[in-house]
Amino acid sequence: MNTKVYVNQDHRAGADSLMGLVFGFALLSFSVTMVWIVTDFGVPLLQLPVILLTLLAVVVAGFLYFLNPARFLTFFLIGLVYFSFEATVRLGGGGGGDLQSLVKGVFTLALAMLGIFTGLRSIWKSWISLAFFAYALFAMVSATYSPMVLIAGVAGIALVGVAIIAAKIGQGDQADVEDYWRAMYWASTLTVLASFAFMAISPNLARDFQDMANYRLRGITGTANSLGPIMGVACIMAFYMMKRSTSPGWWRFHVVMLLLFSAALLLTNSRSSILGVAVAFIASGFVGGGWGILRFLASLIGATILATVMFYPGLQDQLLSMAAALFSRTGSVHELTTFTGRQIIWAASWRLVEDSPWIGYGLSSVSVVLPKAHADQWGNTVATAHNSLLESLLSVGWLGTLPLLAVVLACLWVLARYLFASYSLRDESDSVVARRAMSVCAFRVLIMMLVQGVGEKAFAGHPGSPFVALGAVVATAVFMTLNMPRSVAWGASIGGKS
Q1: Which residue, of 141, 187, 383, 401, has the fewest CB within 10 Å?
Q2: Mapping DSSP to helix (H, G, I), strand (E, B) and coil, where does residue 91 land?
Q3: Could you tell me which residue, 304 or 29, shows the higher pLDDT?
Q4: If you write DSSP's letter for every residue of 277-304 in order, what string do you get?
Q5: Average of pLDDT values for 176-192?
Q6: Are 363 and 395 in contact (CB under 8 A)?
């Protein structure tokens, strides 16, 4: 009898693998056909039936496969979406955007389908995941009144898919959550290696590296402000991977990757991301313990410097001048005090928020509505509010933003309290050490994105790689609340079980 069971399991595993290959081939066929149509729509009588047949094959194969998918598919799609969200191939003068958006949409829909078919029941078991899903669902509904209905609809489906996947993984075992982080780590590894390698074949990328005074490293992403957060999160994940290394060889590999991530982060000159990484490590040191007397001395020194600056206003000008020399691209203090002109953008964004405070203007609408409210003296406009809160308010209003704020604050509370309590218990068992390392990583990523969100949109509004990273933070927080030791049972009040 046992032999028969094992044979059936092997047979089912083989059938799942075969169906996975069929689905992958169907997805590839659909993508190739779509590329053919976009680049040369010269044979419509042939191309239209082919695109319909390949789309039907994707739907049928995807439906059959997602009923019982192989475990690796979830993490493969997470890594693929995390990589493709910001990856941009600049063709000549910058074309290719429509086709690339279409391919990214196919990957995103595949992840969303996987989440809907396999993890929809998971959102009800923790109020953190429920609030995360509520935000994503409201954002998807907001596409109905967005000026970019089609793009917003696909983006909304992506948000829902990530929210469901995060809830499902958070309610799995520790290996599931770790593999979520690993999927993003390997996607970041591919991003940084491709960004440096393509400099040898792309004049546009080589320009970024050769004239860093005027250009910032964009790599294979659209902008330096897109690459910066990815590399910032990657630096934090590299430390986590070093902690979880199983051999000296892997540890050395992660060290090399940490150096590459750090170099790329500095070359992007994304000041909000660089500052966010620094603040994240400092905050985790304070919250997680291990600093002892150093933490006390650092606090004392900080308070002394603050008091000195308050009593001697002349020092403020000197400190600002030093900061401008270090961080300002023009060397001007005015650039720092106005956040590189962002104050004007924020004022225009607030005026728009006041006109539609509760529901906003719809997902993916900021790039359309904000240019109508703001332009500089030369007529230049912006496509983002350069602030995560304003980006969210413009997109989904207060009704959509409040659940997102609740999720962020709950994750911050759960992770911080767990780190503080776990260090206080001095438990050095393997499981506690592993969970502590994962919680430190999630806490640092969240702090980094919050700091970066002061001057950039971060995980708010139209989805990007930072939102997938937020999904990893949510999955980690949900896992910690549902698996909280009794010695730190306070965590059960944040959506977990006692």
Answers
A1: 383
A2: strand
A3: 29
A4: HHHHHHHHHHHH---THHHHHHHHHHHH
A5: 93
A6: yes
